[in-house]
Design goal:
Low-confidence stretches: none
Strand content: 15-25%
Number of helices: 7
Helix content: 25-40%
Structural class: alpha/beta
Order of helices and strands: EHEEEEEHHEHEHEEEHH
Shape: globular
Strand order of the largest sheet: 5-2-1-6-7-11-10
CATH topology: Rossmann fold
CATH architecture: 3-Layer(aba) Sandwich
Oligomer: single chain
Number of strands: 11
CATH class: Alpha Beta
Largest sheet: 7 strands, mixed
Mean pLDDT: 97
Number of domains: 1
Distance between the termini: 56 Å
Length: 201
């Protein structure tokens, strides 16, 4: 009989209109980490309302591993962004789920306009935070008490971490690996996924 403790779980939320790289970029980082280093004691999964496939912002279809209702308890929630966040800002059922999940988790994170949902849920009140460059003003409008950081790639405020847009989620996920498993592990993961940005423009 195994005495190994169950791994702690990171949940990547999916929804119609999610920006593909917002979800898949951090997933690549976190899945590489957890699958290559299971001894660190973490696992990553995807979840969506009803467990149904979601159609992303640019047409990719992803089938989640869990419905919100049957997902394992989350130690870390990662809420991506995308055009699909706009209706979620007014979706009281979704906002209530985000609040409850964040209250039970040790860490709540977002990529891109996922932070708008966190602001609408009241999770960023009085905190520093960031979002996609084109949504910085909207973040400030949703909750004027948020201390909007217009320059940061990501903002770590203890139990809440927000990142800027799209590809910034990869950097934020590497930061999570560093925070949860150490700097050397984060270096190993970065090397493993060969993440060495050198844009040609």
């Amino acid at each position: 009989m195994s005495t190994e403790p169950a791994p702690r779980t990171i949940g990547v939320l999916l929804f119609d209109g999610v920006e593909e790289l917002d979800a898949v970029g951090p997933w690549e980082v976190l899945a590489y980490w957890t699958q290559h280093h299971p001894g660190d004691g973490w696992a990553v999964t995807t979840l969506a309302r009803g467990g149904r496939p979601v159609t992303c912002a640019k047409g990719m279809v992803i089938t989640p591993q869990h419905a919100l209702e049957d997902a394992p308890a989350l130690d870390v929630l990662l809420h991506p962004g995308g055009a699909g966040t706009r209706p979620l800002l007014r979706d009281e059922e979704h906002l209530a789920w985000v609040r409850a999940t964040a209250a039970a988790a040790s860490l709540t994170t977002s990529v891109c306009t996922g932070s708008l949902v966190h602001a609408a849920a009241g999770l960023l009140a009085g905190r520093p935070a960031t979002t996609y460059w084109g949504a910085l003003d909207l973040l400030a409008e949703l909750d004027p008490s948020v201390r909007v950081d217009r320059e940061a790639r990501w903002v770590d405020d203890g139990d809440v971490v927000t990142s800027a847009g799209v590809s910034a989620g990869i950097d934020m996920a590497l930061h999570l690996v560093r925070r949860l498993a150490g700097e050397e592990r984060a270096r190993q993961v970065r090397r493993g996924i060969q993440y060495d940005p050198e844009p040609p423009v």
